[in-house]
Amino acid sequence: MDLASWRLLARTVKKADLVVEVVDIRDPVSTHSWRLVEMIDALDRELVIVLNKADLVPLHVAIGWKDRFEEAGFNAFYVSANKRLGTRRLRGYIKHLVDTIPFTVAVVGYPKTGKSSIINALKGKHSAQTSPVPGSPGYTRHAQLYKIEPGFYMIDTPGVIPVEGGWPDSIIRGRSPEELPDPVPPAAALIEKILQYRPNAIAEAYGITETDPYKIMEELALARGWKYRLTGEPLIEEAARVIIRDYHKAKIPFYIPPQPIRRPRQR
Ligand SMILES: Nc1nc2c(ncn2[C@@H]2O[C@H](COP(=O)(O)OP(=O)(O)OP(=O)(O)O)[C@@H](O)[C@H]2O)c(=O)[nH]1
Ligand SMILES: [Mg+2]
Question: Which pTM value belongs to this model?
Answer without folding.
Answer: 0.93
